[in-house]
Design a protein that fits this description.
The protein is α+β, with helices and mostly antiparallel strands. The chain has a domain at about 35-130: Alpha-Beta Plaits (2-Layer Sandwich). The protein contains 2 helices and 4 strands. β2 and β3 form a beta hairpin. The longest helix has 10 residues, at about 100-105.
Amino acid sequence: MAIQTRYAGDAQGITNVDANTAGALDTIIATGLTKSPTALKITGFGTFSAAESGTGGPVETILRSIAIDSTIVMYQVSSTQLSVLVEATGAGNATATSAQVIATRLQSLGGNIGLAANIYSGGGVTVTTSQGIKFA
C-alpha cells in the first residue's frame, strides 16, 4: 500500500525553489528538486534510432555536451527529437539564454556523429525551452 503524505497549501511553486511562482500554466513545479528545472527540446540532428542511444553513440555525445554546466535529471529520445530535463543550467550568460548557449555548443560538435551516418550536427540544430515538458 502506498503512503501519501498530505500537506496544506496550494499548487503553486515554492518561492525559494521555483523560478515562476505565479501559478502560470506550463510552469514546471519542482517539488523534489533543489533547483529550478529547465526542459530542453532538441531538434535538427536528423533521425535517431534505438542503436544510437547506446554507449559512445550520438545521444551520449549530445548529453555530455549539455552536462558540461547542467545537471541532467532525465531525458527521452524519440525519432526526431531529444527531450532533456535539467536541474539548473549554468549555460546562460548576460547576453544569451541557456538554450542559445547549448544550441551553439551542439552545433559546434561538427561532422556526422551518428552510428548509421544519419545524424549531422549542423546549423539546423535548435534548442527550445518554451514548451515545458510533456508526458505521454
